[in-house]
Fold:
Amino acid sequence: MSSSLMTDFLRQSGGTAVIDGGLATELERHGADLNDPLWSAKCLLTSPHLIRQVHLDYLEAGADILISASYQATIQGFEAKGFSREESETMLRRSVEIAREARDMYFERCSKSSCDSVTDDRIPKHRPILVAASVGSYGAYLADGSEYSGNYGDAITVETLKDFHRRRVQVLVESAPDLIAFETIPNKIEAQAYAELLEEENIKIPAWFSFNSKDGVNVVSGDSLLECASIAESCKQVVSVGINCTPPRFISGLILIIKKVTAKPILIYPNSGEFYDADRKEWVQNTGVSDEDFVSYVSKWCEVGASLVGGCCRTTPNTIKGIYRTLSNRSSVLSLR
Structure:
């Protein structure tokens, strides 16, 4: 059942689908202050309406998959801020509910539109839209940049990581998303922990595994991407595997590596290519690529094997609109052949 969801979704979407883009960048553009260990999850407390608006912005830009604002939302992180276990779990559930609300609002807007037409500003188009509940890495919870290094130290084991993530995953599953998105996985040990957790908890909701790389060959810890992708391939709950929060210039080569070990649909949602300074906790300006350059890669990514394409940190609705148009044009050309 899990694998058929993604197969059916991609068929209904014309063979390729669009994932949304960066959340924190857009929340800040709308006025949110994210200088907090909870990062974008802070808005679950202070301004959920902004999260809903960003989700809507991405849907109107052409996104087919919304990723919830739970990447940095952990029970342990909320409790460290003084919230109870019950309050923490409520906020996790709320992240999925907000994304689902945005989807409902979008469909309502589409039904009021005169036709399923694409304008310069909005894309009011009836189509399958999935909500993916985001699960960030243990390194993301630490808020020290270790999701970009994968260095957790010798004391952290597969069992430690399963214990850390277990209740969070259970709560997100109870929130009824369409998918569980395990994102920015920085090392092999965390991929193994996720795979075992999905099996042990008999999770019925399909999942994707998405790794990050800083050298275009391995995941950021230095572990083999081939070995990491093989873990995803062997886990029956995983319906797609790929790369996120990685510079665009590395993506084509990483897709080819993943294809060596899996026939599952490959997803990619790179960052803008900018450098993140973990010590200063900020992105270094003018180190990335423009939206135009980012979008210019999309056709090549699909040619070498990507089925789902979106953006991660520092990408915007304009980026996603460019991806949508590129994939729509590509689909039209292929259908004429």
Observations:
- The chain has a mean pLDDT of 91.
